[in-house]
Amino acid sequence: MVMEHGGTERRARAGTITKVFDGAGGARDVGAESFAAFRAAPGSQAFAWLHLMRDHPDAAERLAEIGLDEFVVGALTAEETRPRCSVHGDGVLLNLRGVNPHPAAEPGDMISIRLWVEAQRIVGVSVRAQSALEDMLAAMDRGHAPRSPGEFVANLALRLADRAEPEVTDLTDMIDDIEETLLAEEDAAPRAELAQARRVAILLRRYLVPQKDALLALELEELSWLGERDRAHLREAADRVVRLGEELDAIRDRAQIVHEQLIDQRAESLNRRMLLLTVVAAIFLPLSLLTGLLGMNVGGIPGAQDPRGFVAVCVLLVALGCAVFLVFRKTGMFR
C-alpha cells in the first residue's frame, strides 16, 4: 500500500523506522520483533533496516537486544560524531551529516546520521528528524527502494547532498549580491552578511569534506556484500559531495576577496580624508604663523597705528593662501 508523503514525514519524525527490502526495489514495514528475527533466505538479496532516534529512552538497550556489540552501540549513541567510515568485522560504521531542515535552525547546523551496515541489515541512529530520510521513505512508498545495503548508503548520501545543495546555492547568491552592492556603492557593502556567509561556508565544509572521505573509504573496502554497482553509486555520491565542497571553497575564497576589497576601500577613503586635512592644515600653517607674529603683544608691530593695517593684513593673508593653494595644486597634492 502506498502512503501519502505527509504520512511518510510523520513516520520519519516518530522516531522508529523498521523495513525489510526484497532486493528488487520493493520494501515493506515490519515490527521491531520481525527485524530482530530477520534472516534472509539462501540466495536472497533481501535485507532489513531499523532506524532509531538517539534520545529514545531505551535506544542503547534496543541496539544491544538485536545483537550489536558494545563498540557498535557506543559509536551509534555517541554524543558527538564526525563523518567517518570504520570497518568492524564484516560490517561498517558510517557517520554522515545533513543540513537541519527546521525553518528556525541556524544556518550551517548539521544533523548526524550514524549507520551500522552489514550484508543483511542496516541499523541507523540520528539525533533529530532528517529530511533526507523522509525523501527516501517517500521513494520507497512509490516502489523505488534500494536493492542492496551499498545502494541504500549511496542513496542516503545523495539525498543528503541534494538537501545541502540549496544551502550552498543560497550562499553563492548572497556573495553575488554583496559583490554587486560593492561595485555599485562603495560604502554600502553589508559586512554582517559577508561575515555570515563566510561562517556558514566554513561550517558546511567542516563536515562535507570528511563525508567525501568516508564515502570514498567505504568504496575501497573489501566487503563481501559490496558489489561493483554499489561502488559505482558510492563514487557518484562522493563526487556530488566533492562538487559541493569545491563550491564552498570558492564561496570562502570569494568572501575573502570581497573582505579584502572592503578593507582596501576603507583604507583608500581614509587616506583621501587624511590628505584633505593635511592640505587644509598646510595651507593655513603659514597663515597661522603670520597672524601669530602680528598678534604678539610687543612694540614695533607693523601697521599697528595705521587705520588701514587690518585690511592690508587680510589682503596679504588671502594672497598668501591662494599662492600656497596654487603651489600645492601644481605639485599634485589634490590627486
UniProtKB/TrEMBL annotation:
SUPFAM superfamilies reported in the protein's UniProt record: CorA soluble domain-like, Magnesium transport protein CorA, transmembrane region
Q: Which InterPro entries match?
A: CorA_cytoplasmic_dom, CorA_TM1_TM2, MgTranspt_CorA/ZnTranspt_ZntB
Signal peptide extent: none
For membrane topology, the record states:
Multi-pass membrane protein
Q: Where in the cell is it found?
A: Cell membrane
Major localization listed first in the record, in broad terms: membrane
Q: Which GO terms describe its molecular function?
A: cobalt ion binding; cobalt ion transmembrane transporter activity; magnesium ion binding; magnesium ion transmembrane transporter activity
Q: Where are the transmembrane segments?
A: 275-298, 310-328
Annotated GO CC locations: plasma membrane
Return the similarity comment. Answer: Belongs to the CorA metal ion transporter (MIT) (TC 1.A.35) family.
According to UniProt, the name of this protein is Magnesium and cobalt transport protein CorA
The organism of origin for this protein: Salipiger mucosus DSM 16094
Upper lineage is: Bacteria, Pseudomonadati, Pseudomonadota, Alphaproteobacteria, Rhodobacterales
